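call fold(seq) -> tokens
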Amino acid sequence: MQQQQTWYAHGKLLITGEYLVLSGARALAVPVNHGQHLQVVSALAKKDARLLWTAKKPGGLWFRAEVELPTLQIVKTTDKILTKKLIEIFTVIREFAPAFLDGRKSYEVETRLEFAPEFGFGSSSTLISNLAFWAGINPFDLQRKALGGSGYDVACAREVKPVFYQLLNGKPVVEPVAWLPPFKNRIYFVYLGQKQRSDESIARFKKSAVFSGSDIENISAIGEKLVKTDNLKDFENLLSEHEKIMSAILGIAPVKERLFKGHQGIVKSLGAWGGDFVLITNHCTDEAFREQMKSMGFNTMFSWDELVLRK
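ret:
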């Protein structure tokens, strides 16, 4: 007899605390209304147990793989690199749940990503969260061993409102916060078109960044002030100060100076600096703003209401 199970995880955006969240800063993040589905159909294996994995993304197939169980040997795949990464995650899961994919059952698994993988909304963190729930293990434990990073993205996967996220003594502390800016219709998220790899960005940061305890305190304080302000100008000033602090630490000019000179509102990098999404405030009409962004070569953008999860 077949058994079917399904899980769903939300994507995310990191508003404040990028990089320094790894060192204890209190970061502000929001879950987005684009995520990833996981469907698992299992049946007792009569012989030669197999895992048939189909990953879909907007536009169709992402990759497909057949894996032998319990050996986790690849039988065939349309993408060897992605399948090897998947098997690495399975191997980590077995450290916490030794009976996972032990060969007693065969599985047909389908994942469905609701956003383009290059957007940086969390194709890996949503998968990690779903796999952890399937295996019955702690998603933060799996994230830490399989991917590294702070874990804020895994926190957002199961939240329905913005969160403050902090690592205290290496343990994740997640605090949901009621944050709905009264000027949200002025906030947009624009895709720069250059996907950043979080692991590589973190490695560069750990190797070369120089910062102090006061930097961590200041970044944490900015996030706490941000959710309390009801004034757009104050909001922009806080994010501008955040950009200045991180620019000095990273040795990289703020994205507004590099790509949006002359823009009236704030432009703030989200997550790894360099190419994913930026937050931009708009001081003109929605139509005029979108036309302006397109004229600059930025064709993918979302308003607050189009992207940020609200339940």
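Residues 232-250 form the longest helix (19 residues).
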